[in-house]
Amino acid sequence: MTTHTVWLLVIVAFLLSISALISGSETAFFSLSPSDIGHIRKQNTRAGQAILRLLGMQDYLLATILIVNNLVNICIVILCNQVIDNQVIFASATWEFVIKVIIVTFLLLLFGEIMPKIFAAYNGPRFAHMVAVPLLGLKSLFRPFAYLLIRFSSGVNEAVSRKRVNLSMDELSDAIEITANQTAEEKQMLSGIVGFINTEVEEIMKPRIDIVSLDLGAGFERVKQVVVRSGFSRIPVYEESLDKIKGVLYVKDLIGYIDEDDAFEWQNLLRKPYFVPEHKKISDLLEEFQAEKVHMAIVVDEYGSTVGLVSLEDILEEIVGEISDESDIEETFYTKVNDSTFVFDGKAHISDLAKVLGLDEHLFDEVRGDAETLAGLLLELKKDFLKKGETLAFGPLRMTVEQIEQRRIDKVRVIINR
Description:
Number of domains: 3
Order of helices and strands: HHHHHHHHHEEHEEEHEEHEEHHHEEE
Radius of gyration: 34 Å
Oligomer: single chain
Helix content: 55-70%
Structural class: alpha+beta
Strand content: 15-25%
């Protein structure tokens, strides 16, 4: 055995030690319990601070461990190959390959993986303290490579996840369409369940302009009038404007005070309002309603302004269709004049418009932008406010504004060329 070979073995042993420390650090850091972390935070040592910093950026920690470990292992494989070639002459290339693989794999698994990870699993905090400071330095050294690895991995994960979810939704939709034994109502409910996952609050909420509300300073007689006229069981209460919702009045809470005079302080009966962002998924909102035991939420935009109201009934109707009770007034969002002419409410949803007219809902995808209603579609087409009597054409449709109330398009005459 030459001096050169001895030095190679010394370097291999040193690299195996590095591999053991790096492999063990992965187990040590990611097995720390909350109590271990709390104890480390209380000690306030240099190694402890390094541990906390590394745990605060776990993606970079894991990427650094993988990069360093793989580099060290590659060096070990190359050096072991050279050592074996210097000491042994093989009769055939096959035996040379098999023996080298067995020896190197044994060394890497036993000394570089199994033993250090077993030790780190039982001595996590101690092992973490031992490697924290050097590992923090390695993280800084390999940060550019770790950044590229994290970005690439995140991009692949997002692409795969998106493809998997979309494929699943498409398959479910196709399965519903080709099902022959289901009634129209059952197919509608199944379609509602499929679309339920990706539906956002803003798509089903009652818009701000249609919210029935009460001024915080209103007298009790006014409150009773609004309650009777609206027929709602929960009414939001505002101060100055709808952007300052102070509470929600539950009509059932008024039953014991129905005979009180106009000076009755009904404001003491208000309950805390529940606020949700407009882009929240209704599947998540349903879970929140169940957990918080509420049936109605105020929808706000990114600036905190009130944009609408959503109730538990609105969410359930996305699955089972329209729900009506004895207090509901039968309303329709359109009137049929003849086979080719209809008068729609401006707030009619584009999907409902397409169903009534027998059109493909995706016909409007390129021009609708963020619009959900017929009035919004007209604004997207014109890119400006419309006047009464103004007509716009799109595809087979001619749409004429028939009525405007407070700058809102209220009625639209739609003529379809079949």
